[in-house]
Design goal:
By secondary structure, this protein is mainly beta. The chain is 1% helix and 45% strand. It has 1 helix and 63 strands.
Length: 735
């Protein structure tokens, strides 16, 4: 490291000089990739993934980076197959079969007219050589299997069914099996032309309302597996079937109760006759189950992601999986550990929190949990995971940069003490889809409240006085879902919920009272209340379906505000007693007079669709959360911000150069005074991969050469912490 001494004249600037409030918003974050359906590798480095809207991406570095290929299609692409690194096929909607002979540099779209209807989707593709191949196509009411002997120039229908067909697998030419709508839709062939219907297997004595067969895989010419339907409703375990005679008969693989999952399984792969992985997921997050005894026992393993897993590829113990929300993940050790390959997974942002001007959090659907350490200029994508659960996050609340809480679906409430790197459940999840924790608020590190529902028409209020170690519970006060809770101090709090139900307390939640509602317009009815916020010691605002209400007596009574809103408002937030925001379905309202009047600042050129969350950071900048990990702000970063950072925060962190880099790059920073410095590097999952500085340093300029020859290609973040203040920047390693 070389050090250049620098004399700095310390000038005191007000904090608002760094950032200024503005009515002009910008989008600062969005998802990286579209939803993916299938994935295929031809070797350990080269692979493709396909998904919605004609999307095809290729990797040549084992999945660390992905590059979009022009598919010439807008259909959803469901399946992919490559004979070698040049010749490949992709099946999609509207009978489209895409083909390439140059590794995807160009794709040609064919419409398979031999399929009886033009609306069918090609769900599976297999070629045994350059000439001989099969495709499986389906609609919601019929399915077909077709074959070609001339490389796809012409196709012949070999099987027609009156049920949906989902997937097909071949072990070798002519040896194939296929599955479809239910357990009575299992077919096999031993000549590649004639498909035989297997007898419907018994399903373990369970009462299944559906038995969709989703994924299928042939391990040998005789042994194969099918996975499919599962549901928490009625305790319907995920279906596992096995055949030992090429699909002629199937046996249900009953799992012991502790190993049962209750989610849809969408795909299955085996690396040998004993070791396999099945993947899936639904509302409870990603699901991974693994067997080491030929499918007799399937053991759930940790899947620290929330999206539904659709496609799987296996090269020995190396696994690549694709899923909804643009999810791409990798395991080098057959599922023991996982790496998130997607820099920013997609998910609706239901809640945000800014405990400081630099540290912010955004969370929501599928358990997405994103973090910024540089005041929102860049965000690190990820998920909130506890054990085997990655649930929808309904709301988050951070007391400071490290201690935070999350209220989730299926009742779970999670706590972090290290800024979201690790979470533990302080209220455990259940398997009941009608049980949800919607709102969370902590007054201090001991006193906290969670509100939600235990079931239809059964509300619940949880209170803790020891940081979540134990809880007291009140139930069935309003008979409606409780959606949000806020406290001004240890005694005064407000809860709002469905059907114009609200409560307030003046004794720290020991007793809850019902407020009065004044001057409601004719026909107002009992709309749902979705968000509530104190704006002063006694004033509060609440929003919901087409309304804004204000209280001037800590929630004891509410008055209707003539705001002009005509749509559902999902969130209200405030900076002080004057400045506040309310956002919802294509509306974003701003008040500068304590909520008495409002102006709609929604800009269709900036905001995309419904806004679901809002927060005001400590500097008064507004932040809105939307669909697809969309984050918007009116914060303004000016070109001389780094210089001001030196003057105000005491340090400056420069962008590394070169960037992208391989394998070395220079990281520069500047200290205004002698300080204790930490400089660390993290991967996209928040795991520390390098500690570069941990020492007291004098004022001056510092140049650090960082060599990453032992790291995998991908996105990394380097974070500089100086006297407790943090700044972070993103860098990309390519190989």
């Amino acid at each position: 490291m070389k050090k250049h001494l620098l004399l700095i004249a310390l000038i005191s600037f007000p904090l608002t000089f760094i950032v200024s409030q503005s009515t002009n918003f910008q989008k600062v974050n969005s998802y990286t990739y579209p939803s993916f359906n299938d994935i295929r590798f031809v070797n350990e480095n080269t692979g493709w993934v396909v998904g919605v809207s004609g999307s095809i991406y290729q990797t040549t570095d084992a999945g660390q980076s992905w590059h979009e290929q022009r598919s010439n299609s807008t259909s959803s692409l469901s399946s992919i197959f490559f004979l070698d690194d040049q010749k490949g096929f992709v099946g999609g909607g509207n009978c489209s079969l895409l083909r390439t002979s140059n590794g995807g540099t160009t794709w040609i779209v064919d419409s398979i007219t031999a399929i009886p209807t033009g609306t069918a989707s090609i769900g599976s593709v297999y070629f045994s050589d350059n000439l001989k191949g099969w495709i499986l196509a389906s609609t919601s009411a019929a399915g077909w299997i077709l074959s070609t002997t001339d490389g796809g120039i012409s196709w012949v229908v070999n099987l027609t069914t009156t049920k949906t067909m989902n997937k097909m697998s071949f072990f070798e030419a002519n040896k194939g099996i296929a599955c479809g709508k239910d357990a009575a839709t299992l077919y096999y062939t031993s000549d590649g032309i004639n498909w035989n219907l297997a007898p419907t297997p018994a399903l373990g004595g369970f009462n299944y309302t559906r038995s969709d067969m989703r994924g299928i895989y042939m391990v040998t010419a005789n042994e194969a597996y099918v996975v499919g339907w599962g549901s928490t409703v009625g305790a319907q375990p995920s279906i596992h079937l096995k055949t030992t005679n090429g699909g002629a008969t199937w046996n249900y693989l009953t799992q012991i109760e502790s190993n049962r999952t209750y989610d849809n399984l969408w795909n299955v792969r085996f690396k040998d006759v004993t070791n396999g992985i099945a993947i899936g997921g639904a509302s409870r997050g990603s699901v991974l189950v693994r067997t080491s005894d030929g499918g007799q026992n399937w053991i759930p393993i940790r899947a620290p992601f929330g999206s539904t897993l659709n496609g799987i590829e296996m090269r020995g113990s190396k696994l690549w999986i694709s899923g909804s929300s643009g999810l791409l993940i990798y395991s080098p050790d057959f599922g023991d550990t996982w790496q998130l390959l997607t820099p920013m997974p997609s998910g609706t942002i239901y809640s945000m929190s800014f405990p400081s001007s630099l540290i912010g959090y955004a969370a929501g659907f599928d358990g997405v949990f994103h973090k910024t350490t540089d005041g929102g200029q860049s965000w690190r994508g990820g998920f909130l995971n506890v054990g085997l659960s990655t649930l929808n996050i309904q709301s988050i609340y951070f007391l400071n940069e490290n201690v935070g809480y999350a209220a989730c679906s299926y009742q779970m409430v999670a706590k972090t003490t290290d800024g979201g790197a690790n979470w533990s459940a302080i209220i455990n999840d259940t398997t009941s889809a009608t049980t949800t924790s919607y709102g969370v608020h902590f007054v201090n590190e001991n006193l906290g409240f969670v509100v939600g529902k235990l079931g239809s028409g059964l509300d619940v209020i949880h209170k803790t006085t020891n940081g979540g170690a134990s809880w007291t519970t009140k139930m069935n006060i309003t008979g409606k879902d409780l959606r949000a809770v806020t406290f001004r101090n240890e005694t005064n709090g407000i809860i709002v919920g469905y059907s114009l139900k609200a409560l307030y307390t003046t004794d720290g939640g020991e007793n809850w009272k019902v407020p009065t509602f004044n001057n409601l317009p004719v026909g107002f009815g009992t709309p749902n209340m979705l968000s509530v916020e104190f704006i002063s010691e006694t004033e509060a605002l609440t929003v919901g379906v087409n309304f804004i209400l204000k209280s001037t007596d800590s929630g004891a009574s509410w008055n209707y505000i003539q705001s002009g809103t005509a749509n559902q408002l999902n969130s209200v937030s405030a900076y002080n007693s004057s400045l506040g925001y309310a956002v919802g379905a294509k509306e974003a309202w701003k008040t500068t007079d304590a909520g008495n009047t409002w102006a709609n600042i929604y800009d269709t050129n900036i905001f995309e669709g419904t806004l679901y969350s809002s927060i005001v950071d400590p500097n008064g900048n507004a932040w809105f959360g939307g669909a697809s990990s969309g984050i918007y702000t009116n914060r303004v970063w000016v070109g001389v911000e780094d210089e001001k950072d030196v003057n105000i925060n005491g340090f400056e962190l420069k962008q590394n150069y070169p960037n992208p880099f391989n394998p070395s790059t220079i990281i520069k920073y500047r200290l205004a005074k002698s300080s204790f410095v930490n400089l660390d590097v993290y991967d996209v999952l928040g795991k520390q991969v390098a500690k570069l500085v941990n020492d007291q340093q004098s004022a001056g300029n510092y140049d650090l050469n960082f060599t990453a020859d032992k790291l995998s290609a991908g996105v990394y973040f380097y974070t500089l912490k100086v006297d407790g203040k943090v700044k972070s920047k993103k860098m990309i390693l390519i190989k």
